[in-house]
């Protein structure tokens, strides 16, 4: 270890954990906090081919590391002449050399494990605290909490991150057992979370890494307190509805919502859905007639959940949800992590939550669906609804998500001076999200010159936007 920089050894050469090892390495080197302290992460896959026994090589790496991370599952692995697997030899080596050891055990069913793996798990249990996980999201959240705890006690971290630090003056009595029970019921139903609904308050919080020296963390207060805003006043959400396209006073509808993060999301989403147009379908496929909103409900929810989960809670600003005649804007206090940009959010990217201990319960309750895919899901949902793609931007310390409403209503369409082919093109773009000149010709049967003229006219009339060069050009609906 040098100047509070730590090297990690992630154990197990078993194929059982190939995906988990890579995920942990990526997380350790990309998380905004951990990357300040983690200098290197060793995986068995990183060993170059050389004239050295494999066990000598990886045991040498165990001896050189600062923190040993062991992943124990069902398999025991290859056994040497002494009947020991590489995983057990690594653990024994880390123990003998006095390394900091963090152990994760996959699954709750111990009967399925290899007998020697079951004994190894019991051996580790007699020496240290181990954590269980079922999914990679559980693993990374547990790893984050364990590393923060290690950094705190080793002196590397003088001030804990917001989500992991205790909330001043908050006690266990301030947390609602009913809120915790409701969460456990939802998590069990949605994600098969293993804790029983009747689990005691303190045990549930320990399992979720929401205690700091026995005191509730900021995350615990935001998730389960009876009145979170008593301790964190700016954690509220401000929702506004404007009839025009700019902020104008007096504000026609202005609501300030308080409650847990789950309640904040539910209230803000309901506010938006109650103000936008919706279409009620038929009861052909179900007893209840389906409702389709002009803005996709999933995209609205994702934008608001992202703001609540990833905002900077040390800021004096609150999340703001503002509905205009042409768009929905969600303002989130805080900037993106250094390794992400608004442009990168439009392509596959890693999940780098600002508040992992808040994001994990939101995932378990299915408020967050997939790690790192939220912005891509929003883009896809808007395209399916025939809407322009969302905007993601940073504005003076805020992260802003904009969902664009459909301004091409039937009334507007009736007043447009365009031909029937062009009206068909608008319908196609609403269905497909975008269209090329070739696709336009295929649907209308016109010559290339006519297609170019029709599409260019739609651009000049500020109905379409054109992107790309000649052969690769495509057209989308213009944002009003």
Tell me about this structure.
The chain has 480 residues and is an alpha/beta fold. It folds into four domains: 6-159, Rossmann fold (3-Layer(aba) Sandwich); 164-228, no CATH class; 234-281 and 289-355 and 365-404, 2-Layer Sandwich (Heat Shock Protein 90), CATH 3.30.565; 410-477, Arc Repressor Mutant, subunit A. The protein is 38% helix and 16% strand. It contains 16 helices and 17 strands. The chain has helices at 18-30, 54-64, 86-96, 115-125, 136-154, 177-191, 201-207, 218-224, 261-275, 297-310, 356-364, 374-384, 410-415, 420-432, 437-444, 448-460; strands spanning 6-10, 38-42, 67-72, 100-106, 130-133, 211-212, 215-216, 237-241, 253-257, 278-280, 291-293, 319-323, 327-333, 391-395, 398-404, 464-467, 474-477. The strands form five sheets. The chain has a six-stranded mixed beta sheet, with helices on one face. Strands 2-1-3-4-5 form a five-stranded parallel beta sheet, with helices on both faces. The protein is globular and about 85 Å long. The termini are far apart.
